[in-house]
Amino acid sequence: MPLNLLWRGLRPGINRRRWLPDTPALKRRYDVVIIGGGAHGLAAAYYLATRHGVKDIAVIERGWLGGGNTARNTAIIRSNYLTPEGVEFYDLSVKLYRGLARETGINLMYTERGHLTLAHTDAALRTARWRAEVNQHMGVDSRLVYPDEIARLCPQLDLSDRPHLPIMGALYHPPGAIARHDAVAWGYAHGAARAGVEIHQGTEVTGIDVAGGKVQGVKTSRGRIGCDAVIQAVAGSSSRVAALAGFKLPIKTIPLQACVSQPLKPFLDPIIVSSSLHAYVSQSSRGELVMGGAVDPYPLYKQRSSLDFMERLVADILELFPFLGSVRMMRQWAGIADMTPDFSPVMGPTPVEGYYLDAGWGTWGFKASPAAGLTMAELVATGRTPEVIRPFGLDRFSNLRQVGEKAAASVGH
After folding, report:
1. What are the beta bridge partners of residue 111?
2. Shared domain check, 195 and 165
3. CB within 8 A of 28, min separation 6: which ones?
4. Can you point out the beta strands (E) in 198-328?
5. 257 lies in the same domain as 142
6. In the listed set 321, 339, 357, which residue is the last one of a domain according to the structure?
């Protein structure tokens, strides 16, 4: 046991600083109400307060901070997307992540491990080359590598011709990283609270007051709140909450499952992804193998896991690492993901004046947290949509200007 921990435990009357202040009573009115106390909502509150001076903010969370998809993701951070719009946005997020621990004062355990997207077919190899060219054009470090270099980067992979889908190459993205997802949420929460933001956990939104096409307030399980602006950041429940405001979203909600193995001696440094196998794996700082795959094939609002998922995933992982056959699974869980038709998020204004949307993140929301919070805060504070998120507006579906990211985001990671 560390001596400092023992000293603090035995010393009477020590001044224990609370990470968050006590939850105050709800006021009758705030300048901004943020629905959703996950990483996106808390980041928006933090940047509104610290960079724009908007501090009369209430973050409303039905459960507990970071207890939704923020707690249920597999914490992979990358920017090697396919479209220029996607690459630019996620590269901004990676840059913000790199300084986030210093800015928030909490150890995110952010570690750049490298990210390998394996190609098992000629078509997958062409897509990897396409992505590499787009990434390099946008100033993002990605390149196409072949089995000889893959063997150097990850010698544990089975690069023989024994698997039914042998590895032909990979998109290598050196900035690929992992981080503590709970630390991201709590770091933003702590910074926002210090700046004067009120955070209300255990408070459910039951209605949205709209009059004359403009948002007037939010109804909650603890009373009504008047406000001038609302940010909706409720991954998994986006369509339900938007319906309270009177508009529909082009989103379907699908379970996304993941699991971890028993802790193992560290052996896997890069993050390994196979879109053809619909599987990915990384090793945590505790030695667990964090694994996941594609979303379930049907819409459902349930956070339940299934044996079918585990059987399919384990079979695919053993294609890549046959020596893991005797490793035991430790736990399994699921989140619910908002999927859009073009596999890109929806950010910006809505048909309701003063009501702003941060939704449709599918399987890639955690890595976007800093950039989403920063840009949504700028939008609300200035009334102008930042250029980096303009392509992700809700109106793109009616204007037929979709941002197709399926090739880079179809695996749940």
Report:
1. 178
2. no
3. 224, 225, 226
4. 198-200, 205-211, 214-220, 223-232, 252-261, 271-274, 279-283, 289-293
5. yes
6. 339
Joined together, the tokens standing for residue 218 give 């939010």
Percentage of the chain modeled with pLDDT above 70: 95
pLDDT digits (tens, 9 = 90+) for 195-246: 999 999 999 999 999 999 999 999 999 999 999 999 999 999 999 999 999 9
pLDDT above 90: percentage of residues in the chain: 87
Q: Under the phi-then-psi rule, with left for phi > 0, alpha for psi from -120 to 50, and beta for the rest, what region is 109?
A: left
Q: Which among 339, 371, 391 is the end of a domain? A: 339
29, burial (CB in 10 Å: exposed 0-12, middle 13-18, buried 19+): middle
Cα–Cα nearest to 202, from 365, 43, 60, 41 = 60
d(Cα 109, Cα 177) in Å, to the nearest integer? 10
Over residues 80-106, the pLDDT tens digits come to 999 999 999 999 999 999 999 999 999
Q: Which amino acid is at 258?
A: A
Q: Is the pLDDT of residue 413 over 60?
A: no
Confirm whether pTM is higher than 0.85: yes
Whether 122 and 162 map to the same domain: the answer is yes
Q: How confident is the model at residue 412 (pLDDT cuts 50, 70, 90)?
A: very low
Which CATH number fits the domain that encloses residue 159? Answer: 3.30.9.10
Please name every residue paired with 292 in a beta bridge, in sequence order, or none if there are none: 258, 280
Pairing of strands 205-211, 198-200: unpaired
Q: Do residue 259 and residue 169 come from a single domain?
A: yes
User: For 43-50, what is the mean pLDDT?
Assistant: 98
- Tens digits of per-residue pLDDT, 254-279? 999 999 999 999 999 999 999 899 89
8 A C-beta contact, residue 268 and residue 283: yes
On whether both 209 and 265 belong to a single domain, the answer is no
State the residue range of the domain holding 263.
112-176+253-339
- As for how many domains the chain has, the answer is 2
